[in-house]
Amino acid sequence: GDSVTQMEGPVTLSEEAFLTINCTYTATGYPSLFWYVQYPGEGLQLLLKATKADDKGSNKGFEATYRKETTSFHLEKGSVQVSDSAVYFCALSDGNSGYALNFGKGTSLLVTP
Amino acid sequence: EADIYQTPRYLVIGTGKKITLECSQTMGHDKMYWYQQDPGMELHLIHYSYGVNSTEKGDLSSESTVSRIRTEHFPLTLESARPSHTSQYLCASSAKRNTEAFFGQGTRLTVV
């Protein structure tokens, strides 16, 4: 079945460091791919998305490119801030289970001053 | 900003009690979902709905039940709460196939 695998955390970075969170997927068909962020005590917020191969999603300095050949959707940011500390989830949607999102296990990011 | 609301935000309740977690959205979305989030952060789909009078069980077996009598409302009920039901419950909705889902702020349930 479909699945999403993302790197395990926690990831600890200093402010202004470069961030990469790896995400790979397995799916039949042509899924849409997403990154969500969850701040402590909150629900999930959409960070960015890509709906077809080679699309690049971007938002708030974060970027991810839909790579069909490597089945990947890695999240990157050039310079992280303390306020980026949160849990990041990679997800796909391809029509299964009422088009529900299938999530990876989440990666916790802590950015220190 | 997404218009999807969950109440209560926090709930502590005794074993054996019946509870209903409320979820409402004002976006007119047909599809709605309930996820259970364990302490390790992982999200599990427990129920979903394509629209009014449609409910389906998700990937993770759950003793909870749901109903969808109105488009905007998707409540989750536990007939007899147990400590194993302690978790965070997240409600979400989406408009079309393969598009993003919008999430509520969640209900953190503790059964003592």
Structure write-up:
- The complex is a heterodimer of chains A (113) and B (112).
- Chain A contains no helices and twelve strands.
- Chain A is an all-beta fold and 113 residues long.
- In chain A, strand 5 and strand 6 form a beta hairpin.
- Chain A is globular and about 45 Å long.
- The model of chain A has no long low-confidence stretch (mean pLDDT 93).
- Chain B has 112 residues and is mainly beta.
- Helix content of chain B is 0%, strand content 46%.
- In chain B, a hairpin with a 5-residue loop joins strand 4 (31-37) and strand 5.
- In chain B, strands 2, 4, 5, 6, 9, 10 and 11 form a seven-stranded mixed beta sheet that branches. In chain B, strands 1-3-8-7 form a four-stranded antiparallel beta sheet, with no helix packed on it.
- Classes of the chains: A mainly beta (113), B mainly beta (112).
- Chains A and B meet through strand 5, strand 6, strand 10 and strand 11 of A and strand 5, strand 9 and strand 10 of B.
Key words describing this protein structure:
heterodimer; A: 113 residues; mainly beta; six-stranded mixed β-sheet; four-stranded antiparallel β-sheet; 12 strands; B: 112 residues; seven-stranded mixed β-sheet
Number of strands of chain A: 12
Q: Major sheet of chain B: size, sense and barrel closure?
A: 7 strands, mixed
Tell me the strand percentage band of chain B.
Answer: over 45%
The stretches of 5 or more residues of chain B where confidence is low (pLDDT under 50) are none
Label the overall shape of chain A: globular
Largest interface: A-B, 27 and 28 residues
Order of helices and strands of chain A: EEEEEEEEEEEE
Give the distance, in angstroms, between the N- and C-terminal Cα atoms of chain A.
41 Å
Task: Give the structural class of chain A.
Answer: mainly beta
Structure in a nutshell:
The complex is a heterodimer of chains A (113) and B (112). Chain A has strands at 3-6, 11-14, 19-21, 23-26, 32-38, 44-50, 56-59, 62-65, 75-77, 86-93, 102-103, 107-112. Chain A is an all-beta fold and 113 residues long.
